[in-house]
Design a protein that fits this description.
The structure is a homodimer. Helices cover about 30% and strands about 25% of the residues of chain A. Chain A is α+β, with helices and mostly antiparallel strands and about 325 residues long. The first copy, chain A, folds into two domains: about 120 residues, PurM-like, N-terminal domain (60s Ribosomal Protein L30, Chain: A); about 170 residues, Phosphoribosyl-aminoimidazole Synthetase, Chain A, domain 2 (Alpha-Beta Complex), CATH 3.90.650.10. In chain A, strands 9-11-8-12-10-13-14 form a seven-stranded mixed sheet. In chain A, strands 1-2-7-5-6 form a five-stranded mixed sheet. Chain A has a two-stranded antiparallel ribbon with strand order 3-4. In chain A, a hairpin with a 2-residue loop joins β1 and β2. In chain A, α2 runs parallel beside α3 and α2 packs parallel to α5. The relative contact order of chain A is 0.18. The model of chain A has no long low-confidence stretch (mean pLDDT about 95). At the A-B interface, α1, β1, β2, β5 and α3 of A face α1, β1, β2, β5 and α3 of B.
Chain lengths: ~325, ~325
């Protein structure tokens, strides 16, 4: 690494995060679980195959249109378990609170976590509370770690992606990122943009019914859809073509992105899944997904192309192609 | 709660932490797992009984005599799993890093975690890295969450504690707390005090051989031995008598406590277990424990007495009794 100091970009979820994780952790911690390259680890516990995933939430502001750090911290971990092919079951919560934080806010966050857990069908089973001096944290940080049982009928791995496979996104992109940005910068749009923060356990259940026809899926949070596809391209050794006109996008988000010079494909989502499926099953899967309110705007946005290994290409409406790189550093820090 | 702001004492692990957890979380999150009153949750995952436990580490300084935040974060979670009666298996790591933190320090911490995991027989299977702006955290905070398989032969619950049972501590008390305090305040003693930071998975294995004769055990970290015994007294509805002269104590720790006005029974330990066992098995268990280097100073320090339900009494060398309360707020913030 060129720099010897941690920069905000190292937390972006993009290229810099990947480099840091590879150079500092993958090397020293080397084990087959870390090498699975999933949103979590798939573990053998006795006779059971379970998924385990962890995430710390440092979002600012703590309350934003469509959600708050409590809800986000539960759904974020639930969705990572879903992406591993698991039925989410149990979630732990580790809270780091800054001295002087309001007890009422804490109560609101605790209640929001509880409601989110109920909604997503998981239980908050164990917790830990630490307090640090004023000025040594920023309100509250929440770690959630989740475990779930891997569904026997599924096997989600990037190396199962095949040329010709279709890429589905389960709804409109960029809403969480834009909602948080707008709240933070005091921007307002003609129609308010709210975070898409929602649990995807039912999406996971639905997709499991398609068994091996679903190759792999991933939760496009930090770094957005473009970054997740780049990860999958690297890990599968295949490439992706994404058709710009097929990407589900709210007109308000589109307008705001044009105005602010943002690319919705790099904005964080907190209630969407990018799913790679067998070509022949794609249409049926999308139609099924559209029956669920949380994935009603599902669409096939592209396909896997062997001729561009490791690359993600955006096909514009005029038929031109440009490379969609992984998010470089940070479009927006502390988005989750 | 009288105060409506979070105070440092709410993170002490003592009475204020208990009040906060009860008033904010237990009420809203109510479920049978949280009510188990253990250092973690015991869960059914398919046909398997597993333990899950979480802890965030916010210790300052990050490197201290006898350890560092990396090692501590792995052993802390391993020891909580042991206290649940589990064989520790897998650990996740969620890192929150302050912008500007040195990459070299991060590498040292990552290597220390890796070494600790190897030592304790667990694997670091999944992780998450977040970065917050300079001044919004304090170097690095680490959450670890662990899972392990519950040993079939054990059943550790406070409500299995019976009058007459013996209380064992697996070694000298107060070393971690004093080492961190000394490092922080620039104190030096005739013989340096180092943290007792060590994994107790072999202690767990040994105790499992005694099956149901071991009633319950707990890891006396924040709030020390006195606080843990108070928790057990409340949860079991019994009382404890602790004999002052039987408490294993390093003379340097004893001298420093006298000088500084500290009570070693409230100082944090990071490699000790408080174990309640059947009276008749106590001597054999202690002798066995003394065969392991990590528990060579094990001793019976007291017994369970029904006549003082909910109380912990210290019997002084002169035969007088005084009440050992739970730690009120904070003797020393950010000790783990």
């Amino acid at each position: 690494m060129r720099t010897r100091k941690i920069l905000l970009g190292h937390g972006s979820g993009g290229r810099m995060t990947q480099e840091l994780v590879n150079s500092v952790f993958k090397k020293t911690w080397a084990n087959p679980y870390l090498d699975q390259m999933l949103d979590g680890a798939i573990l053998e516990v006795g006779s059971q195959r379970i998924a385990m995933t962890t995430d710390s939430f440092v979002i600012t502001p703590l309350f934003f249109p469509g959600g708050d750090i409590g809800k986000l911290s539960v759904y974020g971990t639930v969705n990572d378990l879903v992406a591993c092919g698991a039925r989410p079951l149990y979630v732990s919560a580790g809270l780091i609170i800054e001295e002087g934080f309001g007890v009422e806010e804490l109560e609101k966050i605790a209640a929001s976590m509880s409601k989110a857990a109920l909604e997503a069908g998981v239980q908050l089973v164990t917790g830990d509370t630490k307090v640090v001096e004023k000025g040594k944290a920023d309100g509250i940080f929440i770690n959630t770690t989740g475990i779930g049982i891997i569904r026997t009928e599924v096997d989600y791995r990037p190396d199962r992606i095949k040329p010709g496979d279709a890429v589905i996104v389960t709804g409109k992109v960029g809403e969480h990122g834009l909602a948080v940005l707008a709240q933070r910068e005091g921007l307002s749009f003609s129609t308010p943009v709210t975070s898409d923060c929602q649990p995807l356990h039912r999406v996971g259940e639905l997709l499991a019914r398609y068994g091996q026809e679903v190759r792999c899926m991933r939760d496009p949070t930090r770094g957005g859809v473009a970054t997740v596809l780049n990860e999958l391209a690297q890990q599968s050794g295949t490439g992706f073509i994404v058709r710009e006109e097929d990407i589900p996008l709210d007109p308000v988000v589109q307008g705001a992105c044009e105005m602010l010079g943002l690319d919705a494909l790099y904005l964080a989502n907190e209630g969407k899944m990018v799913v790679v499926v067998a070509k022949d099953a794609a249409q049926a899967i999308v139609e099924d997904l559209r029956q669920l309110p949380e994935s009603r705007d599902s669409a096939v946005i592209g396909y896997v192309k062997d001729e561009v290994p490791g690359l993600v290409l955006l096909e514009t409406e005029l038929g031109a192609h440009r490379i969609l790189n992984m998010l470089e550093s940070d479009q927006l820090p502390r988005i989750c």
